[in-house]
Design brief:
By secondary structure, the chain is mainly α. α15 crosses α17, α16 runs antiparallel to α17 and α18 crosses α19.
């Protein structure tokens, strides 16, 4: 099964548009604020469906929910690729959010369910790190394919259409998953109504927020994952700006990023950076369990990662104000790589406190908390970056660092008690 889990991650991350997503939107002459609104639109869809989808997965079967999510993704990709006007990107984002809501948390719960059935629960961080690494290796391969598609077709819309193929293959992959991973073996005849699903969802949220360790982990997820989800694609315009400065490329001053995205050099630079970054992310994910071994506990490892997170965001602020776009790009790359050490550790910490029968639901709550943070952060950061540019203020991307540093500082200031809680739980 580990091979199937890895294949899922590899195929799922064949999102050929991912390295160029923001540049593709900028090419439609959208401001950073409206791009932030598109991201917020996806978050709204996920916030409505994230927790109910987890309840549905736990109650009706996880395999069916995963296959449904792939169909929603395919519809989204087709709309992005065929839309006659950018206004259609909003329903495409809604479909994307539906796909995310029925996927996130569900597959992780299936992995942990399989480990429990195999008596290998102590391997959570290692096995999840391995499967996540294959997702990143898939992203690395997709970045290379994406560059080829863009250079050959000269059209960003085509990469959305090409992305439908591996998602069809993943549906076939899931048809081979055993029924035992559905999570319904404890109550095989119980099929709740819509009102029952809503009731279970509210109860799960209440129980998650009532339990102090899970409540804290939820806020950590918002502060790290929610912020990074909102700002990670700014790496693309940062790389485009770096290429412009490094090569003295002439661009339209009214639409510099829209002009740059037509340049083959920008396409190749982004593909190279994303490929190397995803390969490094795969290695980072595989090494997550070593951080835990080095620092003794998952909580200690997480705190050390938060210190790195804070230092990187502060570095981004300083070097952006100094005018070093190269360092800004490097910091964003480092944050994205570091996330792949932090994420397996976070998910393992969630599983430590969650009820196994509600695994998909609890992890869906975790994912929703991220989207909730993204909903507020994405438009705010987009508006701030637009404001910096229009008002002639120094720097370009420092609002990203400011939001990230504030979130990291808040988590570090409140992190004193988790080790005591873990000791009490062990007793």
């Amino acid at each position: 099964m580990i091979q199937r889990f890895c294949l899922y991650g590899f195929l799922k991350n064949q999102r050929y548009f991912e390295p160029y997503f923001m540049l593709a939107l900028l090419a439609h002459e959208l401001s950073f604020f409206w791009i932030g609104m598109l991201y917020a639109c996806r978050s709204v869809a996920m916030n409505f469906l994230e927790i109910p989808s987890g309840v549905v997965a736990d109650s009706w079967g996880r395999r069916g929910c995963m296959i449904f999510s792939f169909f929603a993704y395919i519809a989204s990709f087709l709309l992005f690729g065929l839309a006659p006007h950018w206004i259609w990107f909003f329903p495409a984002m809604v479909l994307y959010g539906i796909g995310d809501s029925f996927r996130t948390g569900t597959h992780k719960a299936m992995i942990f369910e399989w480990l429990r059935l195999q008596g290998r629960e102590e391997e959570k961080t290692r096995v999840y790190g391995i499967t996540r690494s294959w997702s990143k290796f898939g992203s690395a391969a997709s970045a290379i394919f994406a560059a080829i598609f863009v250079l050959v077709t000269g059209d960003y819309r085509m990469i959305f259409l090409f992305a439908t193929i591996p998602y069809v293959l993943n549906i076939i992959n899931f048809l081979g998953y055993p029924k035992s991973l559905d999570g319904t073996h404890t109550h095989p005849t119980k099929k709740p109504s819509l009102s029952g699903i809503a009731k279970d969802a509210m109860a799960s949220v209440k129980n998650t927020l009532k339990l102090r360790p899970l409540r804290r982990l939820t806020f950590e997820s918002m502060a790290w994952g929610g912020v990074l989800q909102a700002v990670r694609d700014y790496l693309q315009p940062a790389l485009a700006a770096l290429f412009i400065v490094a090569t003295w490329t002439t661009v339209n001053s009214q639409d510099p990023y829209g002009s740059a995205q037509q340049n083959p050099g920008v396409v190749i630079l982004i593909a190279l950076v994303y490929t190397l970054m995803f390969l490094a992310s795969g290695w980072a994910s595989r090494s997550a369990h070593r951080w835990v071994s080095k620092f003794g506990t998952e909580a200690n490892a997480a705190r050390r990662l938060w210190l790195w997170n804070l230092a990187l965001y502060i570095t981004l602020i300083g070097f952006d104000l100094w005018g070093s776009t190269a360092v800004v790009a490097l910091v964003l790359i480092a944050l994205l790589i570091l996330q792949n050490v932090w994420r397996p550790i976070l998910i393992s910490r969630f599983d430590q406190y969650a009820d196994p029968a509600k695994g998909a639901t609890v992890l869906s709550i975790e994912s929703q908390s991220q989207r909730f943070a993204t909903f507020f952060v994405a438009p705010l950061v987009g508006w701030s970056i637009d404001h910096v540019a229009t008002q002639g203020l120094p720097g370009s991307f420092w609002p990203i660092g400011l939001v990230g540093a504030m979130a990291a500082f808040a988590i570090l200031c409140s992190s004193g008690s988790e080790n005591k809680q873990a000791v009490q739980l062990a007793k």
